[in-house]
Amino acid sequence: MSRSLTVSRAAQLVGVSRAVLQRMIRAGELIQSEGLVDIDELLRAFPDARVEESGILERVTRIREEAFGRRVREFVLPSPELLSQRLLAQGEELAEMRRHLQAYHALVAAAIELLARRPASAALADEARETLERGLAQVLGSESDNRLDAMTDMLKVVSANVVVRPSGREFLVQGNDSILQAGLKAGLGLNYGCAGGNCGLCKARVISGETRQILHSDYSLSAAERTQGYLLLCAHTAVSDLVIETLEAGSPADIPEQELVARVRALQPLGPNTMLLHLQAPRSARLRFLAGQSVTLGLAQRGGDLHATWPIASCPCDERNLHFHVARDAGDALAERLFAGAVKSGDTLGVHGPSGDFVLGPEMPPRAVFLACDTGFAPVKSLIEHAMAAEAVERFSLHWLASRPDGHYLANQCQAWADAFDEFDYHAASGDDVARGASLMARRALEAGDAGASGFFVAGPQAFVDAAARDLLGAGVPAERLRATTC
Ligand code: FES
């Protein structure tokens, strides 16, 4: 019986991010073998792991809220708390039994080995007795290990772990999520199109594990594909832990050009000169993009269409909702129409793209440093949210320069990140000399951490980007660790 866990499951179990465990593995503080962490090894590294501290019960409650309709919950099922307690008790009981069985198996094997030596002496008989007694004492003396086993069993009830081959990346499927939804939420670049069972683009092969169809699909897999284990990730959820085989997008070249029509969900002022444009893609055609990329929006109107290319400010893990931070700009006719109130909630805009290579890349750096000026914060926000979803970056450093009065239009959001995460530092600065501001920020970022282990992401006006890039490269930051975009 395996006593090893995937990194995702181990992180969930002890209530830390995957990035924390991966850093410990790299530092030799936690041993990983063939991608798995031994449960005893985990207990050694986290001797005080407790179900109350890991937030598991809260997550169970939330998952249940999402999983069941109100009527079903009220009239048929016990309360979430009671169900959680029953599951935990059951898990503890099962873990106790499993440990006893393992120990008895080992004891019997040891006794057989001793007897095979044809014991004739009292000394050998004593040795056999002591071996059995030592083994029993070990079984009865490892209560905390039982507890960790029980927690693992409970987690298996509320979520399933999916390992993706050949990348080796993994994620958890919780609640009623499809495998596709769960993978996107975890920051994976899975291939998909409609997310509704029609296009076949999310086709993947299940190597092991059990799945259940949750969505009617009009797309037909061939008999050969079905025999080989192919299914549509958007139409199935995981019943048990899975290993699947599918390719993921690692670079902009892996993302096809797309065209769709999205509806304006909301237009909300973020400041006197900054507007949040919230678009929603139709259910049948989502936009596939990488965090940090841009799209071209088009507004049809009499006298000719208006177009503008803006960075997406939201995370691809929420692929139906597209956010943009639009600055008032006399030279941008589409922005002017938004500020003039000519576009209303419910109107439609054409979306073409995505474009740009301001992306995290397949190998996320342990430390990510973001330098943004004004609405250059938009693609940076997308990158940060994606990196958080993927739990791959260990330390974030955000420097935001405002060159106009409402330049820090989402300062509360940044402060909330800094308050919520130990490894997130936020620095705000103001000044209309953006080149000088960029140099100051670059210097502060270089002084604050290991430049060799950092990735640098710079977004803002041309003068800001040029100054920051010049100073970072001049200080020895390798060109491949620097990404920049103007906006
Ligand atoms: S994304 Fe189109 S069938 Fe799954």
Any overview of this molecule?
The chain is of the alpha+beta class and 487 residues long. It folds into 4 domains: 4-156, no CATH class; 177-245, Ubiquitin-like (UB roll); 254-354, Translation factors (Elongation Factor Tu (Ef-tu), domain 3, Beta Barrel), CATH 2.40.30; 367-486, Nucleotide-binding domain of ferredoxin-NADP reductase (FNR) module (Rossmann fold), CATH 3.40.50. Helices cover 38% and strands 25% of the residues. It has 15 helices and 21 strands. It has helices at 7-14, 18-26, 39-45, 56-67, 70-75, 80-115, 122-140, 143-158, 179-185, 223-227, 333-339, 377-390, 411-420, 434-448, 462-474, and strands spanning 4-6, 32-33, 36-38, 159-165, 170-174, 203-208, 211-213, 230-232, 236-238, 242-245, 258-271, 274-280, 294-299, 306-311, 321-327, 348-355, 367-373, 395-402, 424-430, 454-460, 482-486. It has a 6-stranded antiparallel beta sheet. Strands 5-4-10-6-8 form a 5-stranded mixed beta sheet, sandwiched between helices. α15 (462-474) links the parallel β20 and β21. α6 crosses α8 (143-158) and α14 packs parallel to α15 (462-474). The longest helix is centred in the first third of the chain and has 36 residues, at 80-115. Mean pLDDT is 84; it is low at 59-78. The structure holds FE2/S2 (inorganic) cluster. FE2/S2 (inorganic) cluster (FES) binds at residues 192-195, 197-202, 219, 232, 234.
